[in-house]
Amino acid sequence: MGFRMGIVGLPNVGKSTLFNALTRTAAAQAANFPFCTIEPNVGEVAVPDARLEKLAAIAGSKQIIPTRMTFVDIAGLVRGASKGEGLGNQFLANIRECDAIAHVLRCFEDGDITHVEGRIDPVADAETIETELMLADLDSVERRRANLARKIKGGDKESQDQDRLLAAAETALTAGRPARSVAVAEDDRRQWRMLQLLTAKPVLYVCNVEEAAAAAGNSQSARVAALAKAQGAASVVISARIEEEISQLAEDEAAMFLDEMGLQEAGLDRLIKAGYALLGLQTYFTVGPKEARAWTIPAGTLAPQAAGVIHGDFEKGFIRAETVAYDDYIAGKGEAGAKEAGKFRVEGKTYEVKDGDVLHFLFSG
């Protein structure tokens, strides 16, 4: 199961520098001019999780395989992108394929790097991007409702339901609110997601600050944090320049560099964790002598569907899940110790997998 986060922002805010650091490659060309990224760059990154190495050490696993998140570097949006300005429509389509959006906002001063609108105001930048996405959504909604009109007259129930949701989105967008502000009933959530509205996606604001502000942020990032809180969104402070430097260092050198900068962990780790939390994801583990592996699932996933992430046959033929909570596995120094302590459980089809569960699935087929 793949999870994709689109990295968006105005030109020259540090998107490609951030992406380079994320993927530790130079695949995304970072340059001081708009539209240097002509095609979206895609990179997979490991989700940092210290639990995995501890489990592997106990089990003597030969290989450690972390769960991964996909980041998509999308070229700089500009005012008018919803009407095709810049390379607008092409990139709006790329955003539509992502599960969440990371808005990279420039929160630093640098006379050598031009700002496309000639000023440093991350809140205004965020509003510019949001406005373009809302305008694109509004155009899409209006066209879709027009196309549904004939089917609705014919009494098609599915078209009526779709139009009802589109109408709710149109009301919000016309009022200047993103689609994610619409209260959607549980029964409608699947069809709502299928609408693929840009502004229905969760948002993470990434405040790109100067190196000296990497640890505590600055006045500009504080303004963004307040904006995120008001919207029920998330924000994270990062220095793309520091992250790019760290990505070129060996692990021990990177740790020393972080310590010198007064940072407890790399900003990229915070970014990935924030994205993971934003999407409502959690991790379960499979552990053995061959490998210790992390698997990504949405919170609330039942055991058979969690098994299906490994292989479809596991879900189809699901019998039961042998389960040990992470803390119990560590305390018992493995499955045998957890069994002796009475912490080993057998769960059925209705079991809701918890974050950190160590699972072994039994299935027929």
Quote the distance from N terminus to C terminus.
22 Å
Residues in helix, %: 40-55%
The largest sheet, given as strand count, sense and whether it forms a barrel, is: 6 strands, mixed
Order of helices and strands: EHEHEEHEHHHEHEHHHEEHHEHHEE
CA radius of gyration = 23 Å
Strand order of the largest sheet: 2-4-1-5-6-7
- Spans of at least 5 consecutive residues with low confidence: 25-38
- The helix count comes to 14
Whole-number mean pLDDT: 86
Number of beta strands: 12
> What oligomeric state best describes the polypeptide chains here?
single chain
Structural class estimated from helices and strands: alpha/beta
Shape: flat
What is the beta-strand fraction?
Answer: 15-25%
Structural notes for this entry:
The protein has 365 residues and is of the alpha/beta class. Helices cover 42% and strands 19% of the residues. It has 14 helices and twelve strands. The strands form three sheets. It has a six-stranded mixed sheet, with helices on both faces. The protein has a three-stranded mixed sheet with strand order 3-9-8, with helices on both faces. Helix 7 (219-231) links the parallel strand 6 (203-208) and strand 7. Mean pLDDT is 86; it is low at 25-38.
Write the layout of secondary structure elements.
Elements lengths: L3 E5 L6 H9 L17 E6 L3 H10 L3 E3 L2 E6 L14 H9 L3 E7 L15 H32 L3 H18 L14 H6 L8 E6 L10 H13 L2 E5 L1 H8 L3 H10 L6 H12 L2 E7 L3 E8 L4 H8 L1 H5 L1 E7 L1 H6 L3 H6 L4 E3 L10 E6 L2
Brief summary:
The chain has 365 residues and is an alpha/beta fold.
